[in-house]
Amino acid sequence: MPKNFNTIKIYLTDEEKFEDALFEYNFDRDSQIEPIYIYPEGYHEMTDEEIEHDELISQKIYEAEMNDDKKEADRLRELLTPIGPMPIIDIQKTLELIPIEDRQYFIDELDKDSYEEKILLKCLNCDFEEEAPYDIIEECWDSGPYPISYCPHCDKPKFVPVDIYNKKKKK
Ligand SMILES: [Zn+2]
């Protein structure tokens, strides 16, 4: 279906493409290839307590946002455990763990311009907006010139691509 609205394409880094390829490769295999990571300076491994604490805070942030309490949501966000830089997969070293005859698959995947596609949706009823993965939205789009879903904020079937929102609100 031709789209009369824009989506956001985010191109994957080589590391992201490699991790996706490894996930596919490991899927359904008896012996899993464990990736090798580079741990940047300042990397902080979360403890179980911190994970539990952050889950609780995230839940409260979600509730505050649903209540339109932006100030409280911002205050709560400050309480989340600061995450340092994330570990990065070591492509070269991990590739060396893959049997030679299977390596071409990874090299081909790295050559591709793979991207993640997202869409910004906005509610015609309450103005709530949220980004969503486009493949999920597209799957639920049966007919009509653009996808419409239920707004997670006001529950009305008025959640549309932001371009459509802008066109309709201009009239
Ligand atoms: Zn709404």
What can you see in these coordinates?
The chain is of the alpha+beta class. The protein has one domain (8-43, 84-170). It has 7 helices and 6 strands. It has helices at 14-26, 48-66, 70-77, 91-95, 103-111, 134-139, 162-170; strands spanning 8-11, 37-38, 88-89, 115-123, 129-133, 159-161. Helix 1 (14-26) runs antiparallel to helix 5 (103-111). The radius of gyration is 21 Å and the shape is flat. Residues 123, 125-126, 128, 151, 153-154, 156, 158 line the site of zinc ion.
Q: Describe the main β-sheet briefly.
A: 4 strands, antiparallel
Round the Cα radius of gyration to an integer and report it: 21 Å
Number of contiguous helices: 7
What bound compounds does this protein have? zinc ion
Q: In whole angstroms, how far apart are the ends?
A: 25 Å
| Number of DSSP E strands | 6
Structural class by SSE content:
alpha+beta
The average pLDDT is 94
Percent of residues in beta strands: 5-15%
Can you give the helix content as a percent range?
Answer: 40-55%
Could you give the order of the helices and strands? EHEHHEHHEEHEH
Low-confidence stretches: none
Which of globular, elongated, flat, extended, rod-shaped describes the shape?
Answer: flat
Domain count: the total is 1
